[in-house]
Structures are given as C-alpha cells and as structure tokens.
Amino acid sequence: MNSKLFVGNLSFNITENDLQDAFAAHGTVVETNLMMDRATGRPRGFGFITMSSPEEAEKAIAAMNGATLDGRNLTANKAKPRAERARGGGGGRREYSGGGRKDRY
C-alpha cells in the first residue's frame, strides 16, 4: 500500500502547517504538499500528505476522512499514481493561411 494520501475539500484558508498538524496526531508526517493555483497563488482545495508507513497512513485515513478542519469535512484516501501525460503538444510556429488580401505580394 502507498503511504501517500490525497486530502480533498480543504478550506482555502488552510496552510501546509495546519494540514501537517492535523495529520501528525495520527502518525509521522514525512511531507505535506498543498496544491496552489498558479494564477492566483491561492490554495486549490486539495493536497497530499506522505506518512512514514502504510500503517500510519491507514490510521490517518480512518481518523481524518470525514473529519472537520476549518469548517470543512475532509476527504482523505490513498493517493492514486499520477497518470502519464502525452509529451509534446507543439509549441512551434504555425503557418497561417487565412484568406488575406492577395495584392500584397
């Protein structure tokens, strides 16, 4: 089992320290990652917690799934492996051939 947890339905006022403190009561927190919006710099409402062992991760899930933190009922479960994304995506220069005036040439 994975010891990395997904935590959702977080308040936008929550900090990584708040999240770490809440989960530290149920085991050793190795890492806390709060996902931030690139445009606004505000939290996106979810994050990831890495616990030191699978047993502690199960204990934290049991205790924190549905628990209230900063007025919100949390969702806590095992994090799924990140899906592979297609590489590439262009980014190169594209020619435009849209019916402009022909008398310019």
Per the principal axes of the C-alpha atoms, what is the gross shape?
elongated
- Cα(first) to Cα(last) distance is 66 Å
Secondary structure category: alpha+beta
Low-confidence parts: none
Number of strands: 6
**What is the spatial order of strands in the main beta sheet?**
2-3-1-6
Strand content: 25-35%
How many strands, which pairing sense, and closed or not: the largest β-sheet?
A: 4 strands, antiparallel
The ordered H/E elements are: EHEEHEEE
How many helices? The count is: 2
Mean pLDDT: 87
Radius of gyration: 22 Å
Helical amount? 10-25%
Question: Main attributes?
Answer:
single chain; 105 residues; alpha+beta; 4-stranded antiparallel sheet; 2 helices; 19% helix; elongated
Per-chain topology:
Blueprint: E1 4-8, H1 16-24, E2 29-36, E3 43-51, H2 54-64, E4 68-69, E5 72-73, E6 75-78
Describe it.
The structure is a single chain. This protein is an alpha+beta fold. 19% of the residues lie in helices and 29% in strands. It has two helices and six strands, in the order βαββαβββ. It has helices spanning 16-24, 54-64; strands at 4-8, 29-36, 43-51, 68-69, 72-73, 75-78. Strands 2-3-1-6 form a four-stranded antiparallel beta sheet, with helices on one face. Strands 4-5 form a two-stranded antiparallel sheet. The longest helix has 11 residues, at 54-64. The chain is elongated.
